[in-house]
Amino acid sequence: MKVVIFAGGRGTRLSEETILKPKPMVEIGTKPILWHIMKMYSAHGFNEFVICLGYKGYMIKEWFANYHLHNSDFTIDMSNNQIVYHRPHQENWKVTLVDTGWESGTAKRLELVKEYVGKEDFMLTYGDGVSDVDISALVDFHKDHGKVATITAIKPEGRFGALHIGEQNTVKHFAEKVDNEDNRINGGFFVLKPEVFNYLPKEDVMWEREPLEKLAKAGELVAYQHDGFWKAMDTLRDKIQLEELWNRNNPPWKKW
Prior knowledge:
single chain; Spore Coat Polysaccharide Biosynthesis Protein SpsA, Chain A; two-stranded antiparallel sheet
């Protein structure tokens, strides 16, 4: 099962970092948060990725094209320009990098990678959030209910819009920001059937708005409720908090 990752936004609320690099390349420890997300999926055996590029996407392309250079010691023979890698760091990944435009909404980005997804179920997430969600259990949950889309519903920190969840975990509708601690929000980590592309409008819109609302109205959006760790890196404060967790050597999202 392939994993699609949104990695094209400008990340303006983290401008201290994103003025120089795309948000998914902002580092936690010594690795981009995008790497952390991919390692999360890889720990569950999902190693094929389709990355939706946009703002400064060439930097993500360069990082993957020179992955061994960035992650290994090496010797360069300047006489013939040959490189010998020492203890090369390898990943069992197949990564497709797709330019989906600087200004595209997330629904448009998803539409533009349709040909790379194929006709099988696939996963979708954002390039700026980590979690200890059990991805294997999430996939099993999706297969069991048989609906078009599964959304991971998490308990928020208090600054996001809420999901209203009904019987059998079916998402009824979305609401504006609320303070009720019993409400849950969109935590990303979707599992989707290829029929989801039928819910994408021709207009350039955000995946989080009209498409998800249409899926909910049709009864085709089901919530996988996750009560564990989840953190989106929206601001510099979020980045610092994630750095602190990583430096304690037992970050909750590290399952590899």
